[in-house]
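hey so i finally got around to running the thing on that chain from the lab meeting. sorry it took forever, my laptop kept dying and i had to restart like 3 times. anyway pasting the input first so we r on the same page abt which one it is
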Amino acid sequence: MTSRDTILASIRRSLGVSGREAPRRKAVADRLREHPEGVVPARGKLAPKSRAELFRKMVEAAAGSIEEVPRAADVPGAVAAFLRAHNLPMAVRRGEDPRLAAMPWQRERTLEVKQGASDGNDLAAVSHAFGAVAESGTLMLTSGKDNPTTLNFLPDTHIVVVDADDVAGDYETLWRKLRERFGAGAMPRTVNWITGPSRSADIEQTLILGAHGPRRLHVMVVGETEFMGNRGGRLHRDDRTLGARRWVSRQWICCVTRFKGRHRAVWGNGYTELFFLDEPTALAAGHRPCFECRRRDAVAFAASWAAARQQSVAPRAAEMDRVLHAERLDGRGKRRHSLPIDDLPDAAMLALPGEPNSVFALHGESLRRWRPEGYGDPRPRPRGILVDVLTPPSILAALAQGYRPQWHPSAAGLSGRRP
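ok and heres what got predicted. didnt touch it at all, straight out
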């Protein structure tokens, strides 16, 4: 008899049962089959945007940090930036998760990426969560080679990637999704729920982070980013109708709608918000990335701008604004530039001859008709013609030098995914 058998036999004697009683066995079988749900707090029953904001708030309340990463391809750069910001060695360990494996880690040439379970000598690890719970800021991670459990506990810094679509309001939703994904008899051996970094407190209530696991938890939420911007000030009247002005200064910027939990009334004080379908749309209007809420993108844009001009130093925002202001305006109207379509880079916006009232975006070897709700079906890209280009020439040059704007999911033909 094993120790387990001894313990279970002792429990049965105390309860006065044998373990073979039909009613008891049926009760257990029914519970395993029916999966009764517990009480679901109202706090998590929110619309997607509000749920995402609650998740951010609860992660930070649990002493974790969180950022939004527009695309999965941007994760390696975000990981490298996080390590540099915290003066950590440029090395991480990850599992075999295909979502992590598909990311372009090779672009970060100074970042060493190891694979497999941790032996305790890794300072930082990257995992991909199965999902997250907004009501408590909790991450759900499953065991296995894709995301070894050792990465959850041994490294001092744990970076967890989660898709925005996988942030649920409550625990029950994720348990249901887990059963649907794996099926009966194939569930992962272990499910770890992680809320903030590891912590412990003594009898005097002295809190210590990293007592039994990572001292630092950083969450990267990957998903669709929504864009807004402004033109340097207020363009609307008190009754929230537009006045005669269409800009206040040369500072036309493209921002994200969510940044550090800030909230403001639309068309309130300070400036008039403009909302864009995606970043190629904002660029076509002559808006550059904001250096505050989109600093990483703004720095990349400035570097591409400098490369196009063979400048050794990236330009300041005011310098770019001065050039763009001349390129985007024709008097008080929008300036269009007649250019050969063969010379245009990806993400350029244009109008075709004979279709002056339609706008198209160059997307690979295709054209995608722009619509307020998203892009239309692809059509072949014509060759050897002149087109009216909406995107200012300096922005075209930055695109040609490798700046990668963030597209609306419809450009890829897959809802919620970016090209």
